[in-house]
Amino acid sequence: MSDRKISICQGDALELFKTLNDSSVDLIIADPPYNLGKDYGNDSDSKDFDDYLDFSRAWLKEAHRALKPTGSIYIFMGVRYISYLYAILERELGMSFNAWITWYYTQGIGKTKGFSPRHDDILFFNKGKKFKFNLDPIRVPQKFYRQRNNMRGANPGDVWEFSHVHYCQDNRLNHPTQKPEGLIERMVLASSDDGDLVVDPFSGSGTTLRVCQQLGRNGVGFELNPDYVQMTQYRLSLPFSGFDGVDARMERVPNDMNDPEMRKEYFRNHIQWFLKNHPDSIAEFKRQVKEKYGDDILAESDPVGQLDLL
Ligand SMILES: C[S@@+](CC[C@H](N)C(=O)[O-])C[C@H]1O[C@@H](n2cnc3c(N)ncnc32)[C@H](O)[C@@H]1O
């Protein structure tokens, strides 16, 4: 992993995109200001409606130019502007729609007149018809193992449940819209490979870069606020103790894994693709394996004791 490069650049994404060559980026993960008046230490989140659309159009055009023909983009967006962004991506840039993902974050502000918001949306578009998508590393364990489910489990679907990073969590930084690493991990695993280039044009506290650093991707982040750039540099220097944020389904151990060879393969993949980066989930995994398959199975399936080393 040591030859991978992670860099964070301070400045305006619109200008910094110009430093990227045409068709050079494998994956873009963009979490722009939603134009809701949040305080990012600048006035980037308080534009007029049309100015915001012009800004969105301009950076999306740059993103499209920089993506490889096989590249993909994920864009976080609130309800007010998402349909406009969809139209720009599909109608103006000719990109291919893949999924409209709902991020269900379970808790948040409470409204007294109306329904409290509990989700954000994420648009997933591919630049062309041929694109990278690695399903196996992001499959979610099912309640009952079935051979035809291919080693690991089900497609995670387009409703993703991850809690916000809470203020009491060690990983929480002083940024108003820090995203859970587990959520970004799923995008990076699905839509890039080891050594690929991932760009986050609105890097904030550096969540995408932290995930790329741990998953062996090259990462480039752009961020307007110099304090957040410093925050990211600090974050990237910390020892790794696991990603924050977990989809609770990942902590399931399926029933009916009766064939020892298949079980071994399942455990090997689960360690490699999930537990390695989520050490907080290991104790629960061991507990369920013991309960469902007995004491000896873990030693048999993890002969070198990799789980104890994580
Ligand atoms: C929604 S936040 C991103 C949060 C990030 N995903 C995280 O997990 O911390 C958007 C960020 O974009 C930055 N920003 C706003 N306008 C920008 C621009 N034109 N170029 C670069 N960064 C910008 C803001 O300062 C803010 O930190």
TrEMBL record:
Coiled-coil regions listed in the entry: none
This protein's UniProt keywords: Methyltransferase, Transferase
Molecular function terms from GO: DNA binding; N-methyltransferase activity
Tagged with keyword Methyltransferase: yes
Protein EC: 2.1.1.-
Entry keyword Methyltransferase: yes
InterPro entries found in the cross-reference section: DNA_methylase_N4/N6, DNA_methylase_N6_adenine_CS, RM_Methyltransferase, SAM-dependent_MTases_sf
Superkingdom of the source species: Bacteria
Gene Ontology terms: cellular component: cytoplasm
Residue ranges of domain DNA methylase N-4/N-6 in the record: 25-232
Gene Ontology terms: biological process: methylation
PROSITE patterns: N6_MTASE
Stated family: Belongs to the N(4)/N(6)-methyltransferase family.
UniProt-recorded name of the protein: Methyltransferase
